[in-house]
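@channel sequence for tomorrow's demo:
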Amino acid sequence: MSGVTEFARAKINLTLEVLGKRPDGYHELRSVVAFADFGDTITFTPSGRFELLTTGPMAESIEGPNLIEKAAALMAGILEPDVAHPACASGRFDLVKRIPVAAGLGGGSADAAAAMRAIMRTNPHLKADRAALRAAALKVGADVPVCLAQTTAFMAGVGEALTDLPETPSYPALLVNPGVKLSTRDVFTALAAKPLAYDAETSDEAAERLIESVRANGWASYLLSSRNDLEPPARRLAPEIDEVLARLSTLPGCWLARLSGSGPTCFALFETAGQANEAAKIIHSERPKWWLAATQLG
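structure tokens (generated this afternoon):
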């Protein structure tokens, strides 16, 4: 069987609120998540055994186990085979790695979600309902469910509560990473969040409140009034972030500069794609060792 290719778009947390630490050790989150038109690619060719071959500019930065293998194993458990059409979730995965590792861009989660989509495409005769797919994705990682759809969404809980936000505009953006790695675990530890208190507002109610605010005042107003609660601890752990955000905020046309997720990648939003592209040239000339990508978020 020939292979199929999926695009794994980089994930950007436009906002991120940490409500508190749950009794199970996880953190209760609320976040508006968007996706870039920049990312990795995965080609899946079904066969009898798992293989992963990684190339690309960020291939050598990968450390530890890859989530793609975990995703494939879970997919084998939720597909419903029959005698004529056995399920095939194993095979060769060719990953072209472009998203920086440990960068707050959800690269590993995006790759795992892309692998799941590729497996579904090569098994169109098999069944796996949306709830089962999301449950399997959540077992792979908290960000994997939102990466399955790759559309702007309001994410709550530990990643399981998702509300699509179809009216989100497409924003020209510049992504900048100063070349350091940050562990998500370390950033959450540095946050030292308080135990989660009872919240009378459900995730559905919070999503509806967000949508009503945007309809009344617009997306720009909402984003400017929001925050990323992981930004302060990330900046303490990686002071390089301070320089990135300070420079981004002074670029012509930039109206918002913020850390994405647990960092250290930062994003800047612009009025036009031309401004984002020009900003990329400026940053590259000033800091040629920084990683950057001019992109479109949506």
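heads up for whoever presents: The chain has a mean pLDDT of 93.
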